[in-house]
Amino acid sequence: MLALILAHLVAALCAPMLVRALGSKAFLPLALPSLASVVYLVAKAPAVHAGSTDHPHHEVGQGAGGLPPAVTESWTWVHQLGMNLDFRLDSLSWVLAMVVVFIGTLVLIYCVGYFEDDEPGLGLFAGSLTAFAGAMLGLVTTDNMLVLYVFWEITSVLSFLLIGHRITSRHSRSAAMEALIITASGGLAMLVGIVGLGQATGSYSISALMAHPPEAGPLVTASVVLLLVGAITKSAMVPFHFWLPGAMAAPTPVSAYLHAAAMVKAGIYLIARFAPAFADLDVWKWTVLLLGGPTMLLGAWRSLRQVDIKLVLAYGTVSQLGFLVLVVGHGTQDAALAGLTLLVAHALFKGSLFLVVGAIDHCTGTRDLRRLSGLARSMPVLFATACVSAASMAGVPPLLGFVSKEGAYTVFNPVEHGWFTVEGVTFVFILVGSMMTFAYSARFLWGAFRTQRTKPLTEVHDPGFFLQFSPALLAVCTIVLGLTSKTVLEPWLGNYSGWWAASEHPLHLGLWHGWTPVLAFTALTFAVGVLLHLRRRQINSFQRGVAALDLPGAERAFLLSMRSVDRLALSVTGASQRGSLPVTLGIVFAVSIAVPVGVLVFQEVPFPTQFTLMDSWAQLGVALVTIAAAVWGALSTRRLRAVILVGVTGYGTAALFMLYGAPDLALTQLMVESISIVIFILVLRRMAGRFPDTPRTVERAARIVIAVGVAGVLAIVALVAAASRMHPPASGGLLETAYTKGGGHNIVNVILVDTRGWDTMGEIAVVLVCATGVASLVFLREEVLETARAAASVSRTRRAVHHEPDTEGSRWLADASRMKATRRSAVLEVVTRLIFHGMLVWSLFVLLVGHDAPGGGFAGGLIATLALTVRYLAGEGDELRAAAPVLSGTLMGGGLFLAVTTGVLGMMAGGEPLQSWVFDLDIPVLGNLHLVTPAFFDIGVYLVVLGMGVGLLTSLGDGVDQQIASERGDGDRDALSRHADDEFVRYGLRHTERPIERPEVDA
Fold first, then answer.
1. How far apart are CA 509 and CA 791, in angstroms?
2. Residues 559, 550: Cα–Cα separation, whole Å
3. Is the distance from CB of 372 to CB of 458 less than 8 angstroms?
4. In the beta sheet, which residues pair with residue 59?
5. Where does the MrpA C-terminal/MbhD domain lie (predicted)?
6. pLDDT of 151-191, one tens digit each?
7. Which tens digit of pLDDT belongs to each residue from 763-807?
8. Which end of the chain is more exposed for a tag (fewer CB within 10 A), N or C?
């Protein structure tokens, strides 16, 4: 099963490329994974009952606790959470999986004729639809409740993309968001229920839960209710029914697949899966009855007034989903058989009818039954298909819809069970709903294919093969399965109904059961259905009158709640995020104080009885200097002085690290603090020299209280955390394992690139995002773009002059000579000549020895950044570009790619991600080389940090230089031109009117 799901994923990833190459015909190869799944399910059909398989991960046979036979497959995933890729293909999963992949295959084939080659966003649509089929396949076959939730949410996200395919349509976007909010909210509730059941049973295995259901109790009852919330939101039960008709804004293939055969069936599947364990609970019975019954009636009633034939089917789908919930959720053997038969029948006839609607819309340009005329003659194949499918929906023999409806009538027969029982009340809902189902089936067929005497015949174009093949095949299946229901369907579906004890008179599928009360109820259904259709005008008038009353409804309540949430969010945001940094930080720090203090006050926590204040007087001296710098910095009124004093606190921290015997941390802290000071100073050029007016006494007092409170709380938390340790520290074995498994003696570096390599991976990704954000702040301002665009045009004529090889150009730091004399520093240029190359060599040395000595990629990258900072300070932007000709984005992207590749190679070699591999190589002349694969990961970190440094210097250094020059109008157009030309290429910025190309420069 996992291979088939991954095949859908791979196909989805390839979809955009296939669409670009093949156009709409790309749906044919994209249908292959679903078609392969159909073949697989057919091949495994005997094994689902009692067969065998030779797959190494497969097992077949009876499950624990007498579970029905099934094909199982298991792969370890997140074992610590009990979240493994377990798949179990029993009769229920087999039927649902076949519905998903069979109809999915036909829908993908149908898309070939439905979409034009130049359809906007077709690649994303094709990929999303293919991935959705794979996610649904995983959802109905997984045996793990947590994995089921993962697939559940994937389908919600993909349905959002599919419903909102037409992004230019406001209706499509709002419908997609509405569906996502409702289904995702239900999914979150379901997740809580899953966790509750996992706690109650000690396992997240569905088969284990079904074999040994937990005893009823508050936790189990609450968990079951939350499971049902997930099911009713996904399957559009009242009061969440309105999202499904709104989702008809999606292209018709989406409606046919998601809203008839797949997505909405996920909730029905969830109910069917857990009904054997929980159907006896009162909360289950009443939820199923009180939601399924009204949903069936409301959906059918609403469909009788629709003039859009697609909405007729949409509200009819809501009604049929209520019907399914009533039958499947009843929890008896006969109801299980009837419910599963109804599920298959509904998928076939409703999928076919939606595809017919899509063909009509495609060929005529309208779905309004008031405008359609004469389609029965002009589209005979689709007319015949619609007749069969609509008749099945109405419950007309000898079709599968009739068989399923007769089964439901038999299960809830009030003559046998009584009218004032759960079965009797359920039967009333089903009987009245079926009467209206017959009426809206006739309304659909009559409205879509009649010939109106007062209207001209609707112009149509040939629907072609693809628009007719899929719905016609589904209609044929409806006929075949209806005629063979007793011999084909009942043996398969009866395996699922075996969960329950056999009834005294078990249900048998078939077309004829004799002269029974059920037959009389069927005749009554047809008669009332015909009468409702004949009285359609009166019904429409009545419904319009009710609609004119503008009564409150579920959709209005939803919209009102969303507006209330928006207003609340705006109010909270306006109160807490006022654009004031002191206020924002004050809120964060206040919460940081309140939460720990609350825990310390209301919980008994241990405090250390003995602790050492210091190990040496040097530590005390450094601490006092650091404290003095912090206090002086807080009292300073000048920005530059405050920045330098804050830097002193950072250097003091580095000194404390060194005194405590942590040279690696000290080196990194020293480099970070040095670069931070430089960046601060670069930014200060755009700010006033002094801080604004001193805050009022109250504000200053509040800041002092918060600052002292944060410091005190952090100190207390550190002491309490040290005294609260119950287990030995995790670092205990690192000294030995750092070398035996990580291949290095530097524990800090081994942790960064091996033990906690994924953390480092995330951190360097954040570094890349931050550098990009800084560049955006500087370069994506409109006035900067306009200035740079104008300057770049000038640079094309002057660029060659700046790069003309001459005596001056051959000297190192030659670009500094083009600076104004008042901005040059002879001392700085001499120092740069002396230390630049040495710092680069030192950075490489720190990088290479970092696995066994203090250093590593992060520290090495910071040292290289400092070297480039010195070069920039000596010659500004021109010298920076000369020293770092590689783009910052290239450095960061290459570093991240190298780090990711290093992690993936471990998996490809059969190990774990980021697993270390140690090689000792004897190289002639050079001697022994101790090589560990995390070294390549460290090189990636080095490149990312270096790229970040180049990006920050380019943005906050050179970029701000040019902004200042432009604002002052100092005439330094050459530097501005060079800056504009290079930075447009460096950051990929292009003006929409005149794309700027990098000019060719003669050697």
1. 81
2. 15
3. yes
4. 72
5. 625-687
6. 999 999 999 999 999 888 889 999 999 999 999 999 999 99
7. 888 888 888 888 777 776 545 545 544 444 444 344 344 444 443
8. C
Confidence (pLDDT) at 279: 92
Predicted TM-score (pTM) of the model is 0.75
d(CA 114, CA 678): 60
**Cα 941 to Cα 234: distance, rounded to the nearest angstrom:** 44
Amino acid at position 589, single letter: F
Amino acid at 722: A
**Statement: residue 880 has pLDDT above 90:** no
Q: Which two tokens stand for residue 384?
A: 């015949």
Q: What is the rounded CA–CA span in Å between residue 364 and residue 375? A: 9
- Evaluated on CA atoms 256, 257, 261, 266, the torsion sign reads negative
Angle between helices 400-411 and 422-449 (to 10 degrees): 160
The per-type count for the chain, helices as H runs and strands as E runs, is 40, 5
Could you tell me the residue ranges of all domains in the chain? 1-50+63-279, 307-543, 745-792+822-965
Helix (H, G, I), strand (E, B) or coil at 475: helix
Return the structure tokens found at 899. Answer: 């780090």
Structure letter (DSSP) for residue 143: -
Contacts of residue 247, Cβ cutoff 8 Å, sequence gap at least 6:
159, 163, 175, 176, 178, 179, 254, 255, 258, 259, 314
Report whether 995 contacts 917 (CB < 8 A).
no
Return all residues near 636 (Cβ < 8 A) that are at least 6 apart. Answer: 642, 645, 691
What single-letter DSSP state applies at residue 459? P
Q: Given the DSSP bridges, would you call strands 83-89 and 67-78 parallel, antiparallel or unpaired?
A: antiparallel
φ/ψ of 61, rounded to 5, equals: 140, -165
How many angstroms separate the CA atoms of 492 and 737, rounded?
Answer: 56
Neighbours of 517 (CB within 10 A): 13
CA angle (808, 813, 819) in 5-degree steps: 85
- Read off the tokens for 344: 């298959």
| Mean pLDDT calculated for residue range 554-564 | 89
DSSP per residue over 558-603, as a string?
Answer: HHHHHHHHHHHHHHHHHHH-SS-HHHHHHHHHHHHHHHHHHHHHHS
**Could you give the CA distance from residue 832 to residue 8 in angstroms, rounded to a whole number?**
57
Residues in a beta bridge with 70: 61
Q: Does residue 729 contact residue 833 with C-beta atoms inside 8 Å? A: no
Whose tokens are 């030192």? That residue is 842
